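Co-fold these.
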Amino acid sequence: MDAPGPITILLSRFEDLVSAGLRSLIGADASLRIVASDVDAGRLDALIAEHAPRVTILNFGLLRAPAELRRLHAAHPATHVIVLANHPTPGECSQLLALGATACLGKDVQGRDVLNAIHLASRGLHVLPHSTPANSGVGLLPDVLTPREADVLDQLQLGRSNGEIAQALCVSVETVRTHARSVFRKLGVHNRRELSGLSRAR
Amino acid sequence: MDAPGPITILLSRFEDLVSAGLRSLIGADASLRIVASDVDAGRLDALIAEHAPRVTILNFGLLRAPAELRRLHAAHPATHVIVLANHPTPGECSQLLALGATACLGKDVQGRDVLNAIHLASRGLHVLPHSTPANSGVGLLPDVLTPREADVLDQLQLGRSNGEIAQALCVSVETVRTHARSVFRKLGVHNRRELSGLSRAR
DNA sequence: TCTTCGGGGGAGGCGCGGTTCACCCTTCGG
DNA sequence: CCGAAGGGTGAACCGCGCCTCCCCCGAAGA
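Predicted complex below.
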């Protein structure tokens, strides 16, 4: 019908097992072709611009903040972004779609679901995980950083002290400490050192 | 690992060409099996109850009102409903999802998209058409009924008057009118008549 | 000893959405 | 004419999340 060529795919960096699984799945589908894989956050822009992939599969954990997706989508509107997150909540998914993602999947989806989602997303159709209205309100809370927490995270990743951050953001040191605590808790780290280990990939 | 049998599908009544196309497409996929087709609105309940299909593909034009979907979903929560509409707007799609649909597609989608969507929807994943860039992101999901509005909708579908609803919900008539206005606005109808020919349809 | 950092709790304010209710108006049908 | 329904506006309250700041404590280092 309308197969002007294979669907070109760019894979961001994932955990090794996830990455291997994705490459294996996609390799088995003749209509899909990977043009780049294991792409770090820092090289995303350049490689998307170079290859202009129909689909970009993005590791949610690679994003400093969800808002970064917005910049990516604005810079490369032609590529459809599928975000792979660990256990996305309905709130997160809608937020990701609002920021420009075309699809949002959990890393626990089945392989054939990924392939189906790639085909649909390549033509712009949205795919979201199932939401169970019965229990969606209970349990999982959105682990997304608030705007202010993202600001503090930026400063933390620059190696600033609490006092310096307070000056930069024009708030008290106590406020910075509050935000930093939330950032640490949400990101699952305990101090600046573990945080810099996470962002080394940039 | 998870192929306990074919995905059972119930097809509502469609235009002849659409119906033939759907049956042909689905017949070509060995993992799909049609348990009923060309089902009228009046027989939907009985046949869904009888066959308990994993997926029901519903003709949007068959619905007397979008709200009827809500009753269907409430009565048969185990079946995933894919709504096929002619040219669904993003607003309509969000309403359909709010009313219990799992996926929403236009009748102009490609055949392989339908198959992909069936597989995804059979496991509860949402599929939506591409949203126009004009209003993409914002406004995709917010038109969901609040719990109280859903209560009022239930009462409205029972043919109750504002006063009766007020008594049933233990609130003032003015409150009922406020909620009813919101329900009408969110569902795109203007009065009880458009909302409910379904109270006597079953 | 002193500061900085991490962790805990809590208070006050602000904005937003949901709920409830109130007033106004027009339209329609018995 | 009168009552019900539909449409518009707005006020009040409440809960929640976010932001800001304060207090407490203990650990680590200069």
